[in-house]
Amino acid sequence: MDWEIEASLGQEMGLVTVLLPTIETFENGGTAKPNRLQDNIDSGYAEWVWWHTLRADPGRLSAILETANSKPKRLIANGRPRMTRNG
Questions:
Q1: Most-buried pick from 36, 57, 72, 75 (CB within 10 A)?
Q2: Hey, where are the domains in the chain?
Q3: Prediction pTM value
């Protein structure tokens, strides 16, 4: 997954993550995700939404996509070396 994120960011595409019900969660409330994605959540570039939220209101996806595509490109955090294998 890391190379897909890297390539999308390299083309300055918006970044939207849908958290599926099967995602691993931790006691502190965090979730398992690639570091490059976390970098872009932390920078404010990536949008993310829980699957159940989209399922309850599918029309919301358009607004999320618009928001992601309108983010300032200066927020992109794409400096990590590409992972050679997904972990």
A1: 36
A2: 2-24+31-72
A3: 0.82
